Amino acid sequence: MFSNKLSLMKKFLVVSAFGLSVLISASQANAANITVTDVAGRQVTLDPSDINKIVLGEGRLTYSLAVLDKQNPLSRVVGWKDDLIQYDPDAYRKYLKAFPEIEKIENLGSPYSGDYSLEKIITLGTDLFILNLGNLLKAQESGLLEKLEKAGVKVVFVDFRQRPTQNTVPSLLMLGKVLNREKEANAFIDYYVSQMRVVRNVVEKISLEDRPIVFIERAAGFNPGKCCSTFGAANLGRLVDEAGGINWGSRKFPGFSGNVNPEAIFTEKLDFIIGTGANWSEAKPNTNAVLFGYEATEELAQKRLQVLADRKGWSELSAVKNKQFYSIYHQFYNSPYHFIALQVFAKWFYPEEFKDLDPQANFKELHDKYLPIDLSGVFWTQLN
């Protein structure tokens, strides 16, 4: 009898010890999990050490990953949309030269198209899908979020485009945690904030009455003969306001952007006109846009800008007559480097107040300190 009791007690202790070890193992496993809140307000729980294969909803999210991992920012990327290749080929070739293996990244197309292959995402062993906030509604309506969740793929939303001045810091903080790059994220954020403050500390002293009216033409000349799209109080429109200008589009309509009849521009006094451009010539050979990027030259940029200034009716605008006609790299509108555009705008609007500010030197410093590629080419210009 006593022997039976002793045997049962031993079994109980063994089972109890086994149960405790299971609990400890589970606790240790859970301890590695973190919960982050993305910029869409969604709470996502994951283990950063398990994030080994990443899919990008847009290839241009490369701009953001680069500041978090200078050694090899795309080493974990297994799939993306080909917008970096199509619409910023100069940058793609820079990264390709530095990291030839990125040629093997799968082109998955648009995550919201009918032919998007969820099966391919799963086959790639995707751990994390990074999407832009501006596509939240599409992701919900297309059923993409629900399908990815069922497949066990973690999804986070970032924003460097809709509300860049509000969402860049939280986006980078969140990515830093998710990708185990908190140190790098914090270092870049400190730099980013200091670069933004260079302008804000001066501009906040300038009264509204003394601020110039600025019109931004979004993707100027992308479609020859078609005009015009501009930004509202968001994105580059917001940066115009932050740089001490009054964005024309902010006063005309709510939201991110809108289309404008050229007559509306011709009947108003515009102090500055700024177009955006990039190397779209490979995706759209007949484009008249200013082909900014790492392979651009000032000579070609001037020729292209003159073509835009010579469009019917534009030569009569006071901003064109006064040579206050500019163009800037379109891709600043979707990257954490937009503080460079902010500084360029501020120097254009207030050359005396910002005579000691050197955006070109700061852009080079950004590359030298935080990016795996070097600076070359042309990214903004003024009509000569």
TrEMBL record:
Residues 1-31 form the signal peptide. The keyword Mitochondrion does not apply. The keyword Disulfide bond does not apply. It comes from the Bacteria. Pfam families: Peripla_BP_2 (PF01497). Keywords: Signal. InterPro entries: ABC_Transporter_SBP, ABC_transptr_periplasmic_BD. Residues 53-357 form the Fe/B12 periplasmic-binding domain. This is ABC transporter substrate-binding protein. It comes from Marinomonas colpomeniae.
